[in-house]
Each structure stands twice: as structure tokens, then as C-alpha cells.
Amino acid sequence: MVCFVAMSDDSQAAWQELAPDYERARTKEDSLDRLVEWPAQRDLLGDVTGRSVLDVGCGNGGKLAELVGDGATASVGIDVSGNFLSAPPPGSEFIRGDLSELDSVPGLAGRRFDRILFLQSFGYAKDPVRTLQAARAMLADDGFILLTRTQPIRYAVERTEQNGSSLGEEYFSTAQFSYLSGWNDQITLTKRPYTISDLINVFSAAGLWIETAIEPQLSEEARRRYPHKQAWMNKYLGILIFKLRPHPSH
Fold first, then answer.
1. CATH node for 2-151+194-229+237-246
2. Which residues contact 204 (CB under 8 A, 6 or more apart)?
3. Strand ranges for the chain from DSSP E
4. What value does the mean pLDDT take over residues 7-11?
5. What is the pLDDT of residue 13?
6. Pairing outcome for strands 177-180 and 75-79
7. pLDDT above 90 covers what percent of the chain?
8. Among 205, 213, 197, 212, which residue's Cα sits nearest to residue 247?
9. Percent helix / strand / coil, the chain, rounded to 5
10. What is the phi-psi region of residue 238: left when phi exceeds 0, alpha when psi lies from -120 to 50, beta otherwise?
11. pLDDT of residue 124
12. Which of 46, 96, 151, 226 would disulfide-bridge 237, Cβ 3.0–4.6 Å?
């Protein structure tokens, strides 16, 4: 089942154009998503048999479809692009919607999920605390949120190269920055800088605590096979993955 909600924001339009490029890049043999991110994310999710999953910013829905194939049920993917799999597997549903308006997306009212995923999508939230609070309200008992973000040092290193500045200066900068997308060099993305402490404070403000935090790396085999990817990881560090649970006092 695929539902549609009208969208008109500039950033949403950019993602609609970028989405197919992202999916093509993700499936390449040497994609870091394929080699590092998804294996680590999948490991933290554990056994999903009989579990319901909400994938927020799901892209075409390929990862959610894989989880449904592994036994997840009554699961939903949300993405602003609407470029979903043409034949969603039974037990999955895809809704075109904005993660910044998660608490008002049609089809989600009153629903609860065992696992809620923000796999590199959280950075697009206009109000990160509000988005996480909305997700927290949708968690079933003993459910958790799995959230992935780019290691902020990466952006600081890139800006030092661009601006001829220092790492500390760029890491603690609060000015927005723009860069050409690695998936489509015709599209420029603009992002808010953040530090690791910023992330921790957002989680806390949303009533969540960190059960697990990891920084996944390439396997020894992948390092040997793709030395150019290891060189990139050595310089830009990769990603952070957080397993978040509701704080009992909230």
C-alpha cells in the first residue's frame, strides 16, 4: 500500500531529485552503506520476527522490505520522495510524508512500533526534538529507536579544507554550510553543523537515553578489498549509530 501527502518545501524537492541517485550509490559494491552502515544497523536491530518497524526517511523502502523478509510485520516506511518499491512485500506499507511532521502523518495516528529507524534521515528534521518526541510517542512497550548520523568530525574536516581554517574552529562553528551532494553534483545541500554533545542534548530533551552507541568500521576483508574506502574512513571517520530508549521519568 502506498499513500501520498502533498509536499512543497525546497529541501523536500531536492531530496525528491536526489533519492534515485542515493539508491543507485547505496547499491554499489563498494558503498559504505553496504559495507559498514547497514550491517551494523542490522546487527543492532537483532531478531525482528513478529516485530513492527517504522522506517522514517526510508528512501525506496529496500531496507524495510529486507526486515519484513526477516520476519518483521505490520511495518511502515515514510519518505518525502515517494519513490518506493513497485511491489512492496506483504506486511509492509509505504507513506509519502515529511519526517518533520511525523506527529501528523496520515496513517500513523494511534499506531505503535517495536522499532523506529532514522537511518541517516534525522539530519533533515526541521525541529529535531519535536521529531524525536513524536517518534518516542509511537514506541511500543520495550521498543527502541535506532538512529544513525554522520560523524560531525567529517563535516569539520571538509570545512577546514574548504576554508583553510582549523579543525576546532569548524567543529564548534554554528554557521550553516553548503556542499555539493556526492550522489549528484548538480545539487547543493545545506546543513546545520552539530557536535556530539549537541546530539546527546537533543536525545535528552526528547526524553530518550542512549543504551548503545557505536562507530562501525570496515571489516578486515573489506579493508583489504577496498583500500580507497579505508582511506576515506581514516580521514572522515564515518558514522555514529545510537540505540535510544524512552527515559522512564518522561
1. 3.40.50.150
2. 247
3. 2-3, 53-56, 75-79, 92-96, 113-119, 139-150, 177-180, 188-191, 208-214, 239-246
4. 45
5. 61
6. unpaired
7. 73
8. 205
9. 40, 25, 35
10. left
11. 86
12. 151
Domain layout of the chain by residue ranges: 2-151+194-229+237-246
Of the candidates 96, 208, 90, 205, the residue with the CA atom closest to the CA atom of residue 145: 208
Dist. CA 229–CA 166, nearest whole Å: 25
pLDDT range class, residue 7, cuts 50, 70, 90: very low
User: For strand 139-150 and strand 113-119, is the pairing parallel, antiparallel, or unpaired?
Assistant: parallel
Q: Which residues of 200-212 are buried (b: 16+ CB within 10 A; e: fewer)?
A: eebbeebbbeeee
Q: Residue 218 corresponds to which cell in the numbers above?
A: 570496515
Bridge partners for 77 per DSSP: 55, 94
Rg (CA), the chain: 18
